[in-house]
From TrEMBL:
Residues 41-290 form the G-protein coupled receptors family 1 profile domain. This is G-protein coupled receptors family 1 profile domain-containing protein. It is a multi-pass membrane protein. Keywords: Cell membrane, G-protein coupled receptor, Membrane, Olfaction, Receptor, Sensory transduction, Transducer, Transmembrane, Transmembrane helix. It comes from Muntiacus muntjak.
């Protein structure tokens, strides 16, 4: 293989989950369904939180931000995959690959940081309830989200710039459904040592440090819950963390599975299949986990859907009456 300069690379080949043409319609339908569920499920959470004044609290502010990030996270990879299947073309341009990788790393890092911020929020609410409104003031919540965006942007920008310095060989096949950074480094003809070091260092900053923060927060939470004398009080305190703990477990277990599958099965579709849990299934399940296990979200969601249904029915029955008209059923 002859090495070539990275600026002259026209395109990469995304081989996807399977090269069998008979499976492509099934994969297309499955991923289109999961993508739509992810978008509409997380959008429902955002609209519900924004429309209900009772949910204008730090916990639900962070939840709505997490839902927005999950929509963006899946939108960086799935639409391109669906387009390739529909057009029966497996290519992505060099520039498009770098851009996709940048936004993928950006929103993956944001997911990580927001889950850590939400764990800190639960820690303050349970361990310091009397000072909760002071510690988690609106400007502090905005600052925490802003810092998460800045750190994730810097991380993804650094990784993207490091990829730009690499030269690639004639073998440009990526055994994945998106431009995953470890695959790009494996395809490079130039020395990837510095890139690998940056990836490992970034993984510690983006993965290990936030996880340590989450573990520390929950260790304090568990100690505080154990100090509550009544079983009802313990259950109530733990129930406020159950949804977040489920999402954290799903997120980190699937991410660990992706890492282990890639190191053990290089140049196979196994790592791509496992990464579906991390990139698609987890963002899709988050709205269900929070809505099914959270009474406030369920009540607000019912009110929101009921309000929208009532408005649509009134528009069908009274299409020519203004909402401000005295005869209008919707004040």
């Amino acid at each position: 293989m002859e090495p070539g300069n990275s600026t002259k690379i026209p395109e990469f080949l995304l081989l996807g989950l399977s090269e069998g043409p008979e499976l492509q319609p099934l994969i297309f339908g499955l991923f289109l369904s999961m993508y739509l569920i992810t978008v509409f499920g997380n959008l429902a959470i955002i609209l519900t939180v924004s429309s209900d004044p009772h949910l204008h609290t730090p916990m639900y502010f962070f939840l709505s931000n997490l839902s927005f990030v999950d929509i963006c996270f899946t939108s960086t990879t799935i639409p391109k995959m669906l387009w390739n299947i529909q057009t029966q073309r497996e290519v992505i341009t060099y520039e498009g690959c770098i851009i996709q990788m940048y936004f993928y790393l950006l929103f993956a890092g944001l997911d990580d940081f927001l889950l850590t911020v939400m764990a800190y929020d639960r820690y303050v609410a349970i361990c310091h309830p009397l000072h909760y409104t002071i510690i988690m003031s609106p400007w502090v919540c905005v600052l925490l989200v802003l810092v998460s965006w800045v750190l994730s942007s810097m991380y993804s920008l650094l990784q993207s710039l490091m990829i730009l310095r690499l030269s690639f060989c004639s073998d440009l096949e990526i055994h994945h459904f998106f431009c995953e950074i470890t695959w790009l480094i494996q395809l490079a003809c130039s020395d990837p040592f510095l890139n690998n070091m940056v990836v490992y260092f970034g993984s510690v900053i983006i993965g290990v440090v936030p996880l340590a923060g989450i573990v520390y927060s929950y260790s304090k939470i568990v100690a505080s819950i154990c100090g509550i004398s009544s079983a009802q009080g313990q259950y109530k305190a733990f129930s406020t963390c159950a949804s977040h703990l489920s999402v954290v477990s799903l997120f980190y277990c699937s991410a660990l599975g992706v890492y282990l599958s890639f190191t053990a099965t290089y140049r196979s579709h196994t790592s791509a299949i496992v990464s579906v849990m991390y990139t698609v299934v987890t963002p899709m399940l988050n709205p269900f986990i929070y809505s099914l296990r959270n009474k406030d979200i369920k009540r607000a969601l019912k009110r929101f859907l009921g309000m929208e249904t009532s408005r649509k029915i009134s528009m069908l029955l009274f299409p020519y009456i203004s909402p401000s008209h005295p005869l209008s059923p919707c004040p």
